[in-house]
Design goal:
By secondary structure, the chain is mostly helical. Helix content is 76%, strand content 0%. It has 4 helices and no strands. It has helices at 2-15, 20-27, 32-39, 46-65. Helix 2 (20-27) packs across helix 3.
Length: 66
């Protein structure tokens, strides 16, 4: 049961945008690469989140040039 809760916590943290370094620290992993190998497959909607993030940055940069 505890292992399942740990996976749920890590998966939800990644899905909400917690960076892998912070998550690795929270989980007690010395190597963030281990955290990525273990949990990165659980990211849902990652492509759309990336598009949105890049779009926000692009729009902000265009707004500063005006």
């Amino acid at each position: 049961m505890m292992h399942a809760l740990r996976h749920l916590f890590a998966s939800e943290a990644i899905n909400e945008g917690v960076d892998v370094y912070t998550l690795a620290d929270l989980l007690g992993h010395d190597d963030p690469a281990f955290t990525l190998r273990r949990y990165v497959h659980r990211v849902t909607g990652a492509v759309e989140k990336a598009r949105e993030a890049i779009g926000r940055r692009y729009r902000a940069a265009r707004g500063r040039r005006s």
